[in-house]
Task: inverse folding
């Protein structure tokens, strides 16, 4: 009889643990995102304020003479059509679409503007032979 009561208590305990642990595990799973997901790949919810407006440039492929862009999941070559718009320019970071007289520029990284790098004046590197040294072939 005591053995039967212990089994019943153990069964009730396991059932209670299962009931309370399952929702917690599901909540943790839903809160974690996929760390390997590329930016912009289905990361938005269905609320209208979070979904980007208009077309979205997702990727650019420049290889030899080939220029391709992936816009809203569709691969389009230079000169190709996306709906009623023609792809007229593809660069490393943007694509220009033309519809009639209207042009639209899609940027790969919309919040980032490319700035030229200001280079400092040339100076001797640390560890490099100085001008006129024997290593460089100057006087000894």
Result:
């Amino acid at each position: 009889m005591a053995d039967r009561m212990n089994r019943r208590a153990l069964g009730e305990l396991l059932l209670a643990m299962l009931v309370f642990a399952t929702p917690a595990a599901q909540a943790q799973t839903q809160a974690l995102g996929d760390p390997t997901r590329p930016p912009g790949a289905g990361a938005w919810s269905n609320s209208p304020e979070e979904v980007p407006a208009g077309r979205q440039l997702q990727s650019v492929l420049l290889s030899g003479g080939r220029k391709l862009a992936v816009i809203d999941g569709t691969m389009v070559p230079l000169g190709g059509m996306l709906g009623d718009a023609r792809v007229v320019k593809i660069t490393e970071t943007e694509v220009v679409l033309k519809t009639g007289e209207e042009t639209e520029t899609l940027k790969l990284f919309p919040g980032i503007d490319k700035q030229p790098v200001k280079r400092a004046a040339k100076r001797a590197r640390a560890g490099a032979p100085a001008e006129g040294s024997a290593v460089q072939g100057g006087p000894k």
Remarks:
- The longest strand covers residues 57-63.
